[in-house]
Amino acid sequence: MHNRRLWQPDQARISQSNLHQFMGEVNRFHGLQLHSYAELYQWSVEKTTRFWPLVWQHCGVKGELGNIVAENRQEMQHARWFPDSRLNFAENLLRRQDESPAIIASLEGSQRRTLSWRELGQQVASLAQWLRGQGIGKGDVVAGYLPNIPEALVAMLAATSLGAIWTSTSPDFGEASVVERFGQTRPKVLFAVDGYRYNGKAVDIQDKVTKVACQLDSLEHLILIPLLGLTSNHAGADNLPRQDWHQLLASQEGASLRFEPMAFNDPLYILYSSGTTGKPKCIVHGIGGTLLQHLKEHQLHCDIKPGERVFYFTTCGWMMWNWLASALASGATLVLYDGSPFYPDGNVLWDLARDEQVSLFGTSAKYLDALHKQGYVPINTHDLPHLRLICSTGSVLSPEGFDYVYQGIKQDVQLSSISGGTDICSCFVIGNPISPVYRGESQGRGLGLAVQVFNEAGQAVQGEKGELVCTKPFPAQPVGFWGDESGDKYHAAYFDRFDNIWCHGDWIELTDTGGILFYGRSDATLNPGGVRIGTSEIYRYVEQLDEVEESIVIGQQWQQDERVVLFVKLKPGLTLDDPLRERIRQQIRNHCTARHVPARILQVDAIPRTKSGKIVELAVREVVHNRPVNNTHALADPDVLDQYRNRPELAC
Predict the structure, then answer these.
(1) Buried b or exposed e, range 133-160, using 16+ CB within 10 angstroms
(2) Can you tell me the distance from the alpha carbon of 101 to that of 191, in angstroms, rounded to the nearest whole number?
(3) pTM for the predicted model, two decimal places
(4) What share of the chain is helix, strand, coil (3-state, %, to 5)?
(5) Tens-digit pLDDT profile for residues 201-231
(6) Per the omega criterion (within 30 degrees of 0), is the bond before 344 cis?
(7) Which residues pair with 454 in a beta bridge?
(8) 618 class by beta-carbon count within 10 Å (0-12 exposed, 13-18 middle, 19+ buried)
């Protein structure tokens, strides 16, 4: 059942929270008497031009605020916030320059590393000085083909201190995937490693790096980080100046930090859509909007305080890496991990959380489900007194996933099922430290974001499923898409569905508690008999069966209608037979409706996912209908799709 309260902050925690302090400032400055999150949220979306400057001031943004809060607010796509403000992103992340740790890094199979704030600043200054000497500056693109290591943060901070634009992807991406991304954004500098470690293996990517570099005709410099210390092998890229990371930093010893003042809406990051339906979209995020939104989310929603340890299991190919990096602006210590979350076993991240006294532990719903399925119960093995917030994202966290966190990990913890994505490099839906957590529900909508649920007719509804929309401009909207001079692609992505309204593509419901229920992506919803069904409802109950490890469900066009087709990956050694099919159907019928029951249930060995771990219903749907999948490079293992192609069971 939903609406069962799983956690309630005590009065001390509420009164000591940054959010409570911020609400007091709102009340004092504007003569109000707001007492609850719901009241604060309502004020923040009704008075956005008062709210965002107050966030700037409360979070102590370094820069000039300017006199204009927003322009073109009546036309959402073209709204511009703080057009006359000046600031530098890296300067806001490097406010501290002391000996306490800024970064604690753990790499699978390697020793722990730390960088103090002073050491981080020194490395950024040295690298920035070298980049400046090569003529890199405002508007140039600098790219990272890197694992989640301190050097990735140093490179990003050095580039953004100059006003350059940072873009990155992770080393598990194949050559074609990287070229598809960086080939569009045309970086002048590429940072790369010789290899990385995953699941007990060292993976040499030197050949991949060379092939990528040779295909990027914009590239002027390749900087190599010898992470594994492999013997250099870079034949084929001899025409490209190559630098060794350590030698480069040593050559610039004694450099001082300098920060280029930039406009609020100048580009900061280029992030890439997963690209499963075509070339990845290159989404450009602005300096000020990203910083302001992340400060709001970290300090007000996640209650991050200076010196706290913040961990998120992520790669440099996922926007959660960019989100994590910004926690430096709140004076937090970043805890990085790169490697498998199940090597040598499922305790590895909880050992890290315990040993490093992590306060915020961020992960994916997929990871929590896998822990649960494999029988890990950290509450019995790991004392986690500092852990106060667990964030889950990437896919829908089921009500049973909520139960698992409170029964299997920690009872007195705030669980935030957060959602937003690459499109806004942040969250539309997020937690807050002063409200209860209800089973299966995200706590609520983010401050300053006018999020509503629209039905098919474009009417706002509550207690009904519909599209997640945002009805007013907000600073973290993308600046645009790279290379989309007319803005047509940007408009088509978010503003085609409802006029002057951001339509995000999530199928959700707003509950009577103010929370949000997620039912999956709206473009993957099923439509048997004209009734829309969210895929997460089926996954939730199918994957409760012991025999089922994972599943994926699509709608197949059939006899002028659509029928539900379910593919299941079973535990090793098991075979799908009619009795198990019937149990699956009965499970769905009992917990959902007769319309949810699949017409066909088929066994597969693997579920196709993007490299960031999201299942790809759309790709499977295309394959089943014998239509081409435009961009298989976006998939972790494209060959998996062969199991879904030309299945005779789907021809009758």
Answers:
(1) eeebeeebbbbbbbbbbbbbbbbbbbbb
(2) 24
(3) 0.91
(4) 35, 25, 40
(5) 999 999 999 999 999 999 999 999 999 998 7
(6) yes
(7) 460, 467
(8) middle
